[in-house]
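Sample pair:
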Amino acid sequence: MLDIQNISKTFNPGTVNEKTALNGLTLHLNEGDFVTVIGGNGAGKSTMLNAVAGVWPVDNGRITIDGTDVTRLSEYQRAKYIGRVFQDPMTGTAATMQIEENLALAARRGKPRTLRIGITKKEREEYRELLKTLDLGLESRLTARVGLLSGGQRQALTLLMATMNRPKLLLLDEHTAALDPKTASKVLTLSAKLVAENNLTTLMITHNMKDAIKYGNRLIMMHEGRIIYDVSGEEKKKLHVSDLLAKFQTASGDEFANDRMILS
């Protein structure tokens, strides 16, 4: 479903601020794979997701989604293939618009627009049923402004918007990092439920190594723009945080020095 072949990305080349963010990265995801991604600061995790989403072009290499070469496609041209949830709950929704209006925008993502009526009665009922699955009471607040929702409610809504059209690929970019632990746990549980129910191929960046082990069927560790550890199946289920720290040291030759991840 996703094939990344030998992609590289260097920012500010030829200057004192030159930084190689991706260094010949290769990754293959089968349909339905739920892959958690960990690594220290500057490992290239978000750069990889941005490269896949088309936020910026890669210097070389190839990116294919479900057999379609998207390497040279712009971000909006890839929209029909990709659903994405960002770290900031304020990103991914339109705060001044109603819940039902946000859902309507998501439903039309990547599709041709027409001059027909904005939201039909049938669509409104579909949105109400979708919102019931969140169990947050939002189904009775269809006309509420999204900016009035809590961070957790907003992130749950964003998840629903990102998955309602069953994208070829779901990108979760530290989407619980800005939430309190209790809310983060709820959103992660909801994420896993939506991924499983829709058999979505998913890449989830997390700074929490316990969550990286708990969720998904596969885990990859990045360092200096490349993958240094890739584990799946039963081997992944048996991992502990101490194992990941040891694997990092063995594969990179460095000690893991990201306080935020270790404290998590």
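The mean pLDDT is 90.
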